[in-house]
Design goal:
The chain has 584 residues and is of the alpha/beta class. The chain folds into 3 domains: 7-262, EAL domain (TIM Barrel, Alpha-Beta Barrel); 269-398, CBS-domain; 408-582, Alpha-Beta Plaits (2-Layer Sandwich). Helix content is 41%, strand content 21%. The strands form 5 sheets. The chain has an 8-stranded mixed beta barrel with strand order 1-2-3-4-5-6-7-8, surrounded by 5 helices. A 5-stranded mixed beta sheet has the order 16-17-15-20-21, with helices on both faces. Strands 9-10-11 form a 3-stranded mixed beta sheet. A hairpin with a 2-residue loop joins strand 16 (474-479) and strand 17. Helix 19 runs antiparallel to helix 20. The protein is elongated and about 100 Å long.
């Protein structure tokens, strides 16, 4: 029986209202869910939402109040156009379990009354509100997952139990705290931390929401790193008007389309995709056994919920272990309880959107080569499965493409990839540092020491770029003794100049070993210049031409190449061998 709420609190409930904020698919801009947020608590005499729930808790009415609020929220949720196709994220107070009237089955009764499917609701639990040893987050997650509800962990990463929670009882969704997303495009450490969280979550079959996104740069960086979903003011502020929730958001779609990062990888993924017929979680074990008998070549099958969202995968070998035991078939087929045993065999599996970057797939597989594969979705719905063999095929294809565009001597990207990079920069919303390197006195060295040693010097400089510059830098070989590097400008341009200075110093120090002892002591070599005149040439060094781009300015690839080329001549006459300018 549902707990009864005193009349005074019924009146408080009437004064409260619910606002909704959309949660979108980060690849398509389509609405995946809405989060319910409490409003008008001031009208009820409370200074904050927390003050309201604290008082209800102190009166031992938290569970009764929450159930009434749950029903009010779900009723308003049904006013959203096509609500059947999205989820409702509902925030739970962890202290519910401490209430004397707490009991199971009440939410199910409300959903049945309102004709809402379980798959349409996701209970959101905050890591901020761990309440000690009496009741912990793992128990709450386990309780609602046993009832087949979706569970999301809010504010992930700011508490102390997050990673332990992923280990003990895997939630369905995590919402990464705003702290990690704010100005992430300018903070390499935040990028590294978010990438670590996302990679781990995906390996465990958990969807990741980038929460609190407020700028285009934060949206695009979250997408690049691999978040599945996005929520924040950039999309829409919470609204109390249900009809203001849209099925898709054109402002987000335009950002995704206008970004050069939004390359179409779907065709490559779909080419390798296996359209494995899935099982649904409601399947009986008799149906599972029949499935594997009819699909003898299938070793792994995705399992979906009633909305065709992936829950994980089922291994044929796990079913066979029962089939070959004396009483195994009887145990599996004993469905007298009315509950499917299939849930006990489902294994978490990585999930990615069909529009994801190919490099994400390769990175996921590289992190876990024992994985059977990756489930592929479109707008969070199952579309197919990438087996380990398919992923290896994708990796081989990508390696061939990279090899084709590499400089054969240095194995660095060549001119076509440089042109693509510059084209992306010219349309980017961030500032970039572009640097053109040219070895000084290389012709004279080549004439005296020969082409073979000249190639060794070229390889030395390529290795210097690899070892001196961080991995996030784009490093390329234009040809001959000309090189190109670039990266986003996260801090003052002086930091970029320090990196370039380090490259120059490292190369000048190491290249001395490529000279004879006599030339090292003398500090120069004698050779002929381009006019065939004999003269002294200093030992090899390198000059750098640097441009800092401005996203608010107009420029194209030809303009960038021209500026870099002109500055290169200036750099050779500078004491530091660096010439730098900014596009205004």
């Amino acid at each position: 029986m549902s707990p009864i709420l005193p009349e005074i609190w019924e009146r408080v409930l009437e004064l409260l209202d619910i606002a909704f904020q959309p949660i979108l698919n980060i690849h398509t801009g389509k609405t995946y869910a809405v989060e319910a947020l409490l409003r008008n608590y001031e009208n009820a005499g409370f200074s904050s939402i927390f003050a309201l729930f604290d008082e209800v808790y102190e009166n031992n009415l938290l569970y009764a109040f929450d159930l009434a609020l749950r029903e009010k929220t779900l009723k308003k949720f049904t006013q959203i156009p096509e609500y059947e196709n999205i989820k409702l994220f509902y925030n739970l107070d962890n202290r519910l379990f401490l209430m004397p009237d707490f009991s199971s089955g009440n939410t199910k009764a409300i959903l049945k009354k309102l004709k809402i499917k379980k798959e349409n609701i996701c209970f959101e639990i905050s890591e901020r509100h761990e309440i000690g040893s009496t009741i912990n987050l793992e128990k709450i997650v386990t309780h609602y997952q046993d009832e087949n509800f979706c569970i999301a962990i809010d504010d992930f990463g700011i508490g102390y139990s997050g990673y332990k929670l992923l280990y003990d009882s895997t939630p369905d969704v995590i919402k990464v705290d705003r702290f990690f997303l704010q100005n992430i495009e300018k903070d390499a450490k935040k990028q590294l931390m978010l990438r670590s969280i996302v990679n781990l979550a995906i390996q465990l079959g958990i969807q990741v929401i980038a929460e609190g996104v407020e700028t285009k740069a934060e949206l695009l960086m979250s997408k690049d790193i691999g978040c599945h979903l996005v929520q924040g003011y950039l999309i829409q502020r919470p609204t109390q008007k249900s009809d203001e929730i849209l099925q898709e958001y054109s402002n987000v779609i335009e950002v995704l389309k206008s970004s050069k990062r939004n390359q179409n990888h779907a065709a490559k993924i779909e080419h390798q995709l296996e359209k494995i017929e899935p099982l649904h979680k409601s399947a009986t074990m008799k149906e599972v056994i029949r499935y594997f008998k009819e699909h003898k070549n299938i070793e792994v099958v995705p399992v979906l919920n009633s909305k065709d969202e992936p829950m994980g995968i089922l291994y044929e070998k796990d079913i066979k272990e029962y089939l070959y035991s004396p009483f195994g078939i009887s145990i599996l087929q004993n469905d007298t309880t009315g509950k499917s045993k299939l849930k006990n065999f489902i294994i978490e599996a990585p999930q990615i959107d069909v529009h994801s970057d190919i490099t994400r797939i390769i990175e996921l597989y590289a992190n876990n080569p024992q994985s059977a594969g990756i489930i592929v979705t479109s707008n969070s719905l199952y579309v197919g499965f990438l087996s380990a063999r398919a992923i290896i095929n994708i990796m081989n294809e990508e390696n061939l493409i990279v090899a084709r565009d590499q400089n054969p001597l240095t194995k660095l990207p060549g001119n076509r990839l440089i042109e693509n990079y510059l084209s992306d920069v010219s349309h980017a919303d961030e500032s970039y540092m572009l640097c053109y390197f040219d070895l000084d006195n290389f012709k004279a060295y080549n004439d005296i020491y020969g082409f073979r040693n000249g190639d060794r010097v070229i390889q030395l400089f390529a290795d210097t770029l690899r070892t001196t510059l961080p991995a996030v830098f784009f490093k390329a070989h234009i040809g001959g003794d000309d090189f190109f590097v670039a990266n986003k400008v996260h801090k003052e341009s002086g930091v970029c100049q320090e990196y370039i200075r380090d490259v120059i110093d490292a190369f000048c120090a190491n290249v001395r070993e490529f000279y004879s002892k006599e030339d090292q002591i003398r500090g120069h070599i004698i050779s002929k210049d381009r006019e065939n005149q004999t003269k002294e040439f200093p030992l090899l060094s390198v000059s750098a031409s640097i441009i800092i781009t401005n996203p608010q300015s107009f420029y194209n690839t030809n303009m960038l190449n021209e500026i870099l080329s002109i500055q290169k001549k200036v750099a050779k006459s500078e004491a530091q061998h660096i010439a730098m300018s900014s596009i205004i």
